[in-house]
Design a protein that fits this description.
Length: about 350
């Protein structure tokens, strides 16, 4: 299969749209309507989108990614009215959160209603995760296609998530029908997932919207994320994720400590991912990737994390060390992804 490339930027979808943009949207709609899957830009990471009502299309997503079948998918919509076909009653508190944060980087796990959504989207669960992306080009596709789209991250399962068109094409060329070339993801980490099927509500996966921001809206308790090995109700809960092929170790300490913070094998080719302020303290023969300006540039680090991991994954380094940030509300999602990439919370320091 030759994977199609479509160019559709935020500027392209501004009204009035050009004939080229409309033709591109029509091509994408036809492909999705006929059960194909495409790389879709969102503000978090690129998604691999398919018709959420078509079990064969969803099967193609799992096959292309090599994704375990018990790992449910998030359904993407452009209008809350679309949920009426597949979501049970939504509590007023959830509506408040949707009004505040949608469109944006948060998904809500809600009671599933009926059989409108293909069963393999939800991995046979009685709940469903739903979100409304804010990326202008991604939203325009959702509006134009006008059906719910299931869209996990558009990467090979277990590998670092894609934040750019090139990442998707490198991973899935020849495995999917097409990829939309657009602006890189604004946030760089997957959405916050809030489980609203229990009370208090619980963060099933941390993301850019923090527990503090959620509590400010509801003025009541919300439980923090806890890793689990049980059957996952949200992506990112059970399996090792976001990992390069090389061993990855997290290290903590002062920025000026460099690799002296722990012992490492100098007979191997080493790589370090860390704030730019640490570069001068790293040995010259070590491959260094700047993650952000300094140890307080959390948003920048989140946006750049997957691109840094992908760079190392494609390099000749044999082991990677990544800087560990102090854990707080602003870094919870970032450190969650870093720990997932190591496959363990065991660290060196």
């Amino acid at each position: 299969m030759t994977t199609r490339k479509w160019k559709l930027t935020s500027k392209d979808v501004e009204e009035p749209m050009s004939e080229d943009a409309l033709n591109t949207l029509e091509e994408i709609k036809v492909a999705i309507t006929y059960g194909e899957v495409v790389g879709l830009p969102t503000e978090t990471v690129y998604g691999l989108a398919g018709d959420a009502t078509n079990s064969e299309a969803i099967h193609k997503i799992f096959v292309a990614k090599g994704r375990p079948g018990d790992n449910p998918l998030i359904v993407h919509i452009h209008d809350k009215k679309q949920m009426e076909a597949f979501v049970g009653p939504v509590h007023e508190n959830v509506k408040k959160l949707m009004d505040k944060f949608w469109p944006g980087p948060i998904s809500f796990i809600l009671p599933l209603k009926g059989d409108y959504i293909a069963s393999n989207v939800v991995a046979e669960l009685d709940s469903i995760a739903v979100r409304m992306p804010s990326h202008p080009a991604g939203r325009k596709v959702l509006q134009y296609v006008d059906i719910p789209l299931a869209a996990p991250s558009a990467n090979l399962s277990g590998k670092p998530s894609p934040t750019k068109f090139e990442h998707v094409y490198d991973d899935l060329e020849g495995k999917i029908y097409g990829v939309i070339e657009s602006e890189p993801a604004e946030y760089g980490l997957e959405s916050t997932v809030l489980d609203c099927t229990q009370f208090p509500y619980r963060i099933a996966r941390p993301g850019s919207i923090s527990i503090t921001e959620l509590r400010e809206v509801l003025k009541e308790d919300i439980e923090r994320h806890q890793d689990t090995t049980e059957r996952p109700i949200s992506p990112g809960m059970k399996y090792k994720h976001y990992a390069p092929r090389q061993p990855l170790t997290v290290f903590f300490g002062q920025v000026n400590s460099g690799l002296k913070a722990f012992s490492y094998d100098k007979n191997k080719k080493n790589g370090v991912i860390a704030p730019e302020t640490m570069r001068e303290y790293i040995d010259e023969d070590v491959t260094f990737v700047s993650l952000c300006k300094d140890e307080y540039s959390y948003r920048e680090a989140s946006k750049n994390l997957y691109a840094a991991l992908r760079f190392m994954d494609s390099s000749d380094v044999e082991q990677i060390f990544i800087y560990g940030f102090d854990v707080n509300d602003e870094t919870e999602a970032l450190m969650n992804r870093i720990y997932k990439a190591t496959g363990s919370t065991v660290i060196k320091g």
